[in-house]
Amino acid sequence: MGEATASVSAPVRQRVEYLEVLRAVAIIAVVVIHASITEWHQLPPGGSRADQLTWIGSALRFCVPVFFMVSGALFLAPEREVAMGSLFRKSIPRLLIPFACWSLCYALVGVYGPGGSRDPAEFARDALTGHFHLWFLLALTGLYLAVPILRPVVRDRRVAWYFVALALPFASVLPLLEHLPVAGEVISEVLGDMRFDLVLGYSAFFILGLLLDRADLSPAVLAWLAAGGIAGVVATGIGTLLVSAHSGEPDELFFDFVTPNVAVVAIALFALARAWGRRFSLSPGWRRAVALLGGYSFGIYLIHPLVQWAYRQFGITTEFAQPWLSVPVLTVLVLVPSLAAAMLIRRIPGVGRLLA
Questions:
Q1: Would you give the DSSP letter of residue 100?
Q2: Is residue 33 within 8 Å of residue 63, measured between CB atoms?
Q3: Distance (Å, rounded) from C-alpha 53 to C-alpha 174?
Q4: Helix or strand or coil: residue 8?
Q5: DSSP string over 328-354
Q6: Which of 20, 58, 64, 198 could lock onto 236 through a cystine, CB 3.0 to 4.6 A?
Q7: pTM for this one?
Q8: Span 266-287, mean pLDDT?
């Protein structure tokens, strides 16, 4: 995301327009998902509103894998080697410091704000574990810790593709199969015995970002990827509707960011954006808008749940109209002040660029 996934935590790479576009699209998708999912969790499956919200979420789950891929394209670039000392002295603290600060902020609001429990133990736990969306910073920290291992992997493209081919099935496909009746128990037991945890789903996205950034894909491959992306969205929506209907409550099984149905959408979007970036460029107006959203995506990500929480205190949710209308409206209402707050925080001398 913006500064966290590029110029704050990784060596600065000259602005690449298609990566900026992906950042901007991904941060909008994140805000849309969070604007819609609160009501989705409150609705029983099967109704029109629940179905609309399901399809909105299904179409946008690509956002987090795309952020990981953008980070990998920037951070693992061979020409931008990062010394291990710099990794621990600069890159990782630039993720953990905002995690600590914003965890404290969200814990204060959640525990001591309106409707909070005022329980010091709950406050301490929330401040340590972080708000629900801050997991991304910890996941990215884990990837940065693995960078000294991943760099030798990406030096050989064949080894890197082998890593991805190994990581995605073990982290994406096989865990999903554990939910199958009867056979799922066997698969789960086998995976538990293997304890094959070296190759993880997020590291596959990290490496895929670099591989796709450097790949020359034919029009035929791009067409197949586009078809796969559409199929992935359909599979996410139908799968979520079915498992939710079966359980009688909203079920996020197919919403997981490492599921194959979500992964194929993220891969397709990244590859198509890369192909677009090689042939086209944005107009000056669009370039400024994309640079603004992409450049402040880290701050928007950190701040937007706080803005959404403030709206909820006044009863402003997606329930005022049909989701196809209320979700975009709430997204804009959250996105604009989040961007403005990120821009203001960034101006704080010394710490602004760390916090937003």
A1: H
A2: yes
A3: 27
A4: coil
A5: HHHHHHHHHHHHHHHHHHHTSTTTHHH
A6: 58
A7: 0.91
A8: 96
